[in-house]
Amino acid sequence: MATPSQPLQHDAMTPIEIADIAAAERPTLLLVDDEDGILSSLRRLLRRETYQVVTANCGQAGLDELARRPVDVIISDQRMPGMSGVEFLRRAKEVHPDTIRMVLSGYADLQSITDAINEGSIYKFLSKPWDDDVLKAEIADAFRRKALRDENRRLSLELRSTNAELVRVNDQLQAALDTQRRRTELGEAALAAAQEIVNCVPLPILGVDPDGLLVFANAAAARSFARRPLLGAFVAEALPPAAADLVAQGHGEARMVIDQDAYRASCHAVDSIMRQRGYLLIFLPDPKP
Known about the structure:
A hairpin with a 2-residue loop joins strand 8 (252-258) and strand 9. This protein is α/β, with parallel strands linked by helices. Helix 3 packs parallel to helix 4 and helix 4 (85-95) runs parallel beside helix 5 (110-120). It contains nine helices and ten strands. Mean pLDDT is 85; it is low at 1-8 and 16-22.
């Protein structure tokens, strides 16, 4: 249906301007016939209808009207000088494919009907003379069909827009997931490299989680504290009390003896790639009595 591109303000307008706007907002019927008497009769018949009626007395005039305004339904005579109804409707279809096109003609021969349907995509072929009630009912049905087409097109556009937005959001989500995956892979690679480096350090190093559980022991720690439970054990169970005190404080140093070997142990708070706080216990040999 013909609709304005944006809301219209009626304030401070003359009655004629308001009437023109109201007419423009109504759906439009275009009547094309080379006989002025036919056009006058149709206008009288349809004067009380809710749609706007526009007339043209030849095919070219009808095309001019189509170029001037949006049209919803077209009814054209078939036999007109200069341009037949079939030719007019074919050209009308090219410039306004969404219009509902009908033929009203007294020359309802089979070839005209076939040409009109094939070339102009005619919705219905009506014959002269017409029955007033039947003609008005056919026109009303054509406007309902046009309204349904417009609504289907609107819904289709909304669906395409929604699908395009879903694709855009999905692409953004996939990009975010890819970025996060790359970051995780880099973090895991960095963690593995760090663990390998720590594992090569000749000093005993233990990793402790926030709950005081031993979760990491490098090779030097595994050798030096081989007689003690390490991974999976709590600091308070596996090491002297001084080690548990260091972890409770989260930092500092303390001297302790483990399996008759003296160490100067230091505690360092660290954050893992999962943002969980933990601690490293680093043991330096301390041979002092």
